[in-house]
C-alpha cells in the first residue's frame, strides 16, 4: 500500500451531500489505536438529506443530532436498536442537517485486530455493515462530534493517487422504512 495523506477539511466543503458521499468511495478510513492502525477502503455509503423522512435530522436539530448540523466532516454517531453504534459524517454547510452513513469497508491493514474486535474467527463478513465497521474499528460515542480530518479517526487517500474512473452504483437504502425507495445508497 502506498503512503496515505489525510483528506483536509476543504475536501468536505463545497460539495453537496450526494457528491460527498460518492467522493468517499475508494478512500481509506483510518483508525489510530494505542499500538495499532486500522485501515479499510470505503466501498459502501448512504446519503441522508435534510428533507428526507428517513434522516434523523428531518424534524430539526436536537441534542442527539446536533453534530449533523455542524460543518461537513463532523462525526455523528448513534446507537442503533440499543445494540450497536452507526458512524456518519455530516455532509453540508453549518445549520443544514445532512450526512453520510458509512455502511461498509474493505479491510486492508490491522485485519487481525478487526477480527478480535468483532469476536470473529476469520475475515468473512468482517466489515460489510455499519455496525460491523464501528465494532471492527472501535468507533463509539467518544468520537461524537470529532472532525474526520484529525487523528485518531480520519479519511485518507493514497499520496500519489492516480484518478482512475470507478464504477459507482446506486440502489435504495437498506434497513429503513421511510423513503426506502430513495436511490441514495452508493457502492463500488
Amino acid at each position: 500500500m502506498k503512503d496515505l495523506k489525510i483528506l483536509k477539511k476543504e475536501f468536505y466543503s463545497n460539495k453537496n451531500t450526494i457528491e460527498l458521499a460518492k467522493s468517499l468511495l475508494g478512500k481509506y478510513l483510518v483508525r489510530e489505536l494505542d499500538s495499532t492502525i486500522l485501515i479499510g477502503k470505503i466501498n459502501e455509503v448512504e446519503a441522508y438529506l435534510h428533507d428526507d423522512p428517513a434522516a434523523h435530522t428531518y424534524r430539526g436539530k436536537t441534542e442527539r443530532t446536533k453534530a449533523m448540523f455542524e460543518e461537513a466532516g463532523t462525526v455523528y454517531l448513534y446507537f442503533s436498536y440499543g445494540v450497536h453504534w452507526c458512524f456518519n459524517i455530516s455532509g453540508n454547510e453549518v445549520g443544514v442537517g445532512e450526512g453520510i452513513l458509512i455502511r461498509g469497508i474493505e479491510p486492508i491493514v490491522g485485519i487481525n485486530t478487526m477480527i478480535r474486535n468483532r469476536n470473529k474467527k476469520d475475515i468473512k463478513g468482517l466489515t460489510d455493515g455499519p455496525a460491523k465497521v464501528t465494532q471492527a474499528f472501535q468507533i463509539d460515542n467518544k468520537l461524537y462530534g470529532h472532525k474526520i480530518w484529525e487523528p485518531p479517526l480520519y479519511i485518507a487517500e493514497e499520496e500519489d493517487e492516480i484518478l482512475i474512473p470507478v464504477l459507482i452504483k446506486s440502489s435504495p437504502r437498506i434497513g429503513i422504512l421511510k423513503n426506502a425507495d430513495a436511490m441514495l445508497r452508493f457502492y463500488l
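The chain has a mean pLDDT of 93. The CA atoms of residues 44 and 187 lie 4 Å apart.
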